[in-house]
Structure formats: C-alpha cells, structure tokens
Amino acid sequence: MAELNGRPVGLDEITALALTNYGHFTTLRVEDGRVRGLTLHLDRLGRDCPALFGAELDLDRVRTLLRRAAPAHGAATVRVTVFDPALDIGHPDRAGDPHILVTRRQVSSAPLPPLRVRSVAYTRDAPEVKSVGLFASLRHRRTARLDGYDDALFVDGDALISEGVTWNVGFFDGDSVVWPEAVQLAGVTMRLLQEAHEHRVAPVPLADVGSLDAAFATNAAIGVRAVTAIDGTAFPDRHPAVDLLRETYLEDPGELL
What we know:
Layout: E1 2-4, E2 7-8, H1 11-20, E3 24-31, E4 34-35, H2 38-53, H3 59-69, E5 75-83, E6 99-106, E7 115-121, H4 135-146, E8 151-155, E9 161-164, E10 168-172, E11 177-180, H5 188-196, E12 199-202, E13 214-219, E14 223-230, E15 233-234, H6 240-251, E16 255-256
C-alpha cells in the first residue's frame, strides 16, 4: 500500500519523487502494532525535515498515518518518506511544503544469514540525514554483490570504518562492544543497543579488524545480523556477545503506535 497524506498517492506525485530524488525517510518494523524505537524514528523525521525543507513536521500527524498503514497483528515494514511533490529541479530553494508518503511491505520471519562484506572508500553526502539519495550507496552494494559479497562497508579517507550501505556496524573486541567513531547515520537499532548495554565508541581502522573477535550489522529491518567476513578477514557466524545483543533487541517490547 502507498498513501500520501492519508489518501492514495497520485502518479504525478510519486513521479515527482522519482525524478527529483530529494527527501528523507525512516523505515520501521511494526510487530502487532508496536515499534521498537518509535520515539527515535519520529525524532529523526522531526530533525531531518527542517534540514531539507526549512519546515517543521507534524509528528502527531505522522503517527496517525502510521496507524492507518500498520497491521494490528503480524509484522510489516513501514516506510515514511517526506518530500515536496511540487519541487522544481531548477528551483529547489522553493521546496518548503513537505508531504508524508507512507508505504508498507510484508516481512519474512525467517532469520537472515550472516553477511560477507567488502570495504569501499566512501562517505555519504550529509550522512547525518537519512535521505532518499541512495544512488552511490546502491551502486557500491551492486558492485560488491557482483563480486561475490553480500554488501559493502564504507570507510573514510583515513581508512576508518564508518557504516554499511543501509546499516550500522559494530564489533566485539574481547572485552566490550565497540561502535565506530566516524561520520555516519546514527541508526535507531544502534542507539537502542547503546542504551541497553555497556559499550565504547572508538575509531576502528580497517587494518585492525583482524584483531577483533566478532562483527555485526544493525538496522530496524534486520535487527542484529552477524557479519562473517570483511574483505579477507573472517569472523564467527555465532558469538555470545552478538547473540546477547540480538536477544536484547528482540526482547524490547517496543512502543504502541
């Protein structure tokens, strides 16, 4: 399903989003009417809207539209995309009337296999914003998959690990969970786990990943997923620290929509 401001979205409106590719979004996993980190998702939308459109977003309205789209029972992935259908590519400075597009798709309950990723030197444009501009990120994912990997992992100009294409990455160094200190999007799942468990934030050089015990990926859609390879460095597909993080995330009851 797809609704714009609570009504069926028109072809011209959705075409405007496709052709301009300017906006921001958040993706939530809804389970029996509840969302883990719902407040954080709404905070993200409320923060990004002024940054892109110079306008405040009615978060109560967003929540109402989410209730329309989310199933009362079962699981689904719901995405909220904020964009201005009247945006003129020649005058983006005039974009100031953000609309709310809500889309829903079904999710599988089957556990996802571990990830094998390849590193690539890349920093997203405005990484603190969860923008719809995914061209370069998806190009790196495509290239990695064509070369036999599952996804790409970004490193900055100093060869420090930052984030995955659409996920955050974390590590276990034998003593504690380590989150990379880098320019990146602070993911909702990552923030929930940081609140629930002791950890440290520190630079993680790509050259040093071989000294780490385990690696994992996080986002709202996948929860916690093991990473079993970064380039030629292998990690176990099961590790007690990663299992504990996954259990902690799954035990979070979430917030009612």
